[in-house]
Design brief:
Blueprint: H1 2-32, E1 35-36, E2 46-51, E3 54-59, H2 66-72, E4 82-84, E5 96-100, E6 102-113, E7 117-122, E8 130-134, E9 139-150, E10 153-166, E11 171-176, E12 185-194, E13 197-204, E14 209-210, E15 217-224, E16 230-235, E17 245-250, E18 259-264, E19 270-272, E20 279-282, E21 285-287, E22 294-296, E23 300-305, E24 312-318, E25 332-335, E26 341-345, E27 349-354, E28 359-365, E29 381-383, E30 389-395, E31 410-416, E32 422-426, E33 436-437, E34 451-457, E35 468-474, E36 481-484, E37 500-501, E38 507-512, E39 515-520, E40 526-528, E41 535-541
Length: 542
């Protein structure tokens, strides 16, 4: 009996187990079957949808688009989400629809900006001697990254913004390289550019010291005040709206500190007044991406520094204007000795601006020179010490009546500042003659006798590419004589050349083969002051 009851129990258990197994299989089969759309027919396609971590098998109406399938399932897409196939695509049996969720994040980090190391050669130090002028200091930058995630996985990480919190400070080491050149006595203060820095020498060429250490002076502005106490200069601190910036530094302190003046985009002109202390005039441009990189404003301002360089008062003299022919390039200005007027040289005219009224008077029409390039020739204009004459370069001649702008004739001339006469002082001087009158010498008759230094082209009919020689003449054009070009050596390069008279009118400073030279006018004795091959823009004041 016990055996029969056990057999019956086993059979009953087996039957229940089998029935349960069959039921489980039936339930799984039902779950794996495509979910039928209420409006679907037996011929409608079955598709697979993967979205938000789920995979669904769906039966959808024939002709349905991906967008309709998503809508029937209550799935919406955000601006960074994407779906494949496209929302407008029609689905078919076996289609796989995949929704990828996109997410955008921003991360902000602070990173170290390492400082640079600069070496400045100083011929005043012994060979091999070094001196730490400025210790280096790292800067700090805040950077922002844009991060794109797809279904939680990072796919894009890109830099979108960088903000300097603390600028790095360059380490500056001065290295001795004493020149074998002898020290030359100097009258007053002689300043010049070398290696992107301003230097000044007082008393002798061997006593020169740097006024700046940034190494980024662009030479657009480099002006020494008449008393030799202040230097005005421009630095290459660019950006979308800034070509350069204007700075000033006192030449007096042993460790000068440069002052940023808050004036930007100076290309042609910024110069100290010859009479008003710490006062200068300047003209501005607007940056452009097309050549030459700016559009001139043809404006004029007067600015005055306070005592010790504290504070700056700016007075507008001339507002922005089109500037006439080639006005996009901009004009050149030059102060009169009494500080009441400025000469203004445009591509097609020579005139005078009266400071008190801001009015411009045209003295002379100029034949423009067609350079065939993206630069414009401006005639030089420098005042005689008595303010009666402008020394300039006249372009063109009677032999170029057909195409005067292409003329290769350039002559040095003197123009009366009150009108009425125009005298040629030297024929065929060349495009870059740049006449510069000397400081006046004493005269019992009340006159201000002076000489004129200028560059004479060695090939006048090709003066754009010609080298030049330094000449000097009397104020009426008489007594012209060649003053400088080393025997057997090539002539002077006019590009970037500036001539500078000593305060007593006895010598002229210039740049030859990248080095600074001083030439005695009376004897023609030429003495080399630097030998690094990087000098430019000499300026000389008392």
């Amino acid at each position: 009996m016990y055996t029969d009851r056990l057999s019956t129990l086993v059979q009953t258990t087996r039957g229940s187990t089998l029935r349960g197994l069959f039921c489980a299989i039936a339930l799984v089969s039902a779950a794996c079957a495509p979910v039928a759309d209420p409006s679907a027919t037996p011929k409608d396609p079955a598709v697979t949808l993967i979205a938000d971590g789920q995979q669904l098998r769906l039966t959808v109406p024939a002709g349905a688009t991906v967008s309709q399938v998503l809508a029937r399932q209550g799935i919406s897409l955000g601006p960074l989400d994407r779906v494949t196939p496209a929302e407008t695509a029609q689905v078919a049996t076996g289609s796989l629809i995949r929704v990828t969720r996109g997410e955008e994040r921003f991360e902000v980090e602070r990173v170290t900006v390492p400082f640079e190391r600069q070496t400045i050669r100083n011929e005043a130090l012994l060979e091999g001697e070094t001196r730490l002028i400025q210790p280096g200091m790292n800067g700090e930058q805040e950077v922002t990254y844009r991060i794109l995630l797809e279904d939680g996985r990072q796919t894009i990480r890109e830099l979108v913004q960088g903000v300097i919190l603390h600028s790095p400070v360059s380490e500056i080491v001065m290295v001795g390289g004493r020149s074998p050149l002898p020290s030359v006595p100097l009258v007053g203060t002689l300043a010049y550019l070398t290696g992107g820095n301003a230097w000044a020498a007082r008393g002798s060429s061997g006593a020169r010291q740097p006024l700046t250490l940034s190494g980024d002076l662009d030479g657009r502005v480099f002006a020494l005040s008449p008393d030799g106490e202040w230097l005005l200069f421009s630095r290459r601190l660019g950006g979308e709206d800034r070509i350069n910036s204007l700075w000033a530094v006192s030449t007096g302190p042993a460790s000068p500190v440069a002052l940023e003046l808050g004036i930007n985009n100076i290309i042609h002109f910024a110069e100290w007044s010859p009479v008003a202390p710490r006062t200068f005039a300047y003209s501005t441009v607007e940056p452009r991406t097309s050549p030459p990189g700016w559009q001139a404003n043809n404006d004029l301002y007067l600015a005055t520094l306070g005592e010790g360089g504290l504070g700056l008062v700016i007075t507008p003299i001339m507002g922005p204007s089109a500037g006439g022919l080639y006005g996009w390039w901009g004009p050149r200005y030059a102060w009169s000795a009494d500080g009441t007027r400025l000469a203004i040289a445009r591509a097609d005219s020579l005139g005078i601006v009266t400071l008190a009224t801001g009015t411009e008077t045209v003295l002379k029409r100029v034949v423009p020179f067609h350079t065939t390039a993206d630069w414009v020739w401006l005639p030089p204009a420098n005042w005689s010490p008595d303010g009666l004459v402008l020394y300039t370069v006249e372009h063109g001649g009677s032999s170029d009546a057909v195409n005067p702008e292409a003329s290769q004739e350039f002559h040095l001339s003197a123009v009366s500042t009150w009108g009425g006469w125009d005298i040629r002082l030297a024929s065929d001087s060349g495009l870059f003659a740049m006449p510069l009158p000397s400081p006046p010498t004493a005269s019992s008759g009340g006159e201000l006798p002076h000489s004129i230094a200028y560059l004479q082209a060695l090939e006048p009919d090709q003066s754009l590419s010609s080298r030049y020689r330094l000449w000097v003449m009397d104020r009426d054009g008489s007594g012209a004589r060649s003053l400088f070009q080393p025997s057997g050596a090539p002539g002077l390069e006019p590009a970037g050349q500036l001539l500078a008279w000593s305060p007593d009118g006895s010598s002229i400073a210039l740049v030859y083969q990248g080095n600074l030279w001083v030439v005695e006018v009376a004897t023609g004795l030429a003495q080399q002051l630097t030998d690094d091959g990087l000098a430019s823009a000499p300026r000389w004041s008392r």
